[in-house]
Amino acid sequence: MRWWIVFLFVAGSAFGCSGESITASTGSGIGPSGKSLFFSRTKGGCSVCHKVADKKLVGPGLEHVSKLHSREWLVQWVTDPAKVWEENSMETVGMKKRLNKNSQAVTAMKIMNPLTKEEIEAIVDYLMTL
Ligand code: HEC
């Protein structure tokens, strides 16, 4: 009986089944895809406010969003929308004008849960396919 326990333990470690190696794999390309983060209610939470269509929800529809913004801007925006709104670069000014938000002091976009750098990159990779 005890041998089985030892065997399972050794086999588990040998095949990398420990909890530690599962955590370590996140963000190394095997983590959740940008699309699943976008539609996740607990992580990215983007789909709570955005449709992937030319249709407004809380925020603008994100169909063709890759034609509207640079990848670099998107990474900054998803990292810290409030900061990008305040810094008001040319690209942000253009967006405010297009969305008719010139007089809005702060952005209404809030990131539901903190995202890691890898998760942000994955979400932006997904946005770039739209
Ligand atoms: C609480 C609602 C909310 C959530 C959650 C949210 N957004 Fe937004 N988003 C907005 C609003 C509202 C705007 C328009 C700017 C404004 O009015 O402040 C916007 C603007 C944008 C834009 C620019 C669109 C354009 O037409 O130029 C992109 C891209 C974007 N969001 C991506 C995302 C992504 C990716 C996520 C998830 C990580 C996300 N948003 C989560 C509300 C939200």
Layout of strands and helices, then pairs:
Layout: H1 2-14, H2 19-25, H3 34-39, H4 65-68, H5 71-79, H6 81-87, H7 90-98, H8 117-127
The structure holds heme C (HEC).
Which short descriptors sum up this protein?
130 residues, mainly alpha, Cytochrome Bc1 Complex, Chain D, domain 2, 2 domains, binds heme C
What does it look like?
The structure is a single chain. This protein has helices at 2-14, 19-25, 34-39, 65-68, 71-79, 81-87, 90-98, 117-127. It is mainly alpha-helical. It folds into 2 domains: 1-31, no CATH class; 33-127, Cytochrome c-like domain (Cytochrome Bc1 Complex, Chain D, domain 2). The N and C termini lie far apart (56 Å). Heme C is lined by residues 44-46, 48-50, 58-60, 62, 65, 68, 74, 77-78, 95, 99, 101, 107-112, 123, 127.
CATH class of the largest domain: Mainly Alpha
Query: Rg from C-alpha positions?
Result: 20 Å
The global form is: globular
- The CATH homologous superfamily of the largest domain is named Cytochrome c-like domain
Question: How much of the sequence is in beta strands?
Answer: under 5%
Largest sheet, in brief, is: none
CATH architecture of the largest domain: Orthogonal Bundle
Low-confidence parts: 5-28
Q: How many strand segments?
A: 0
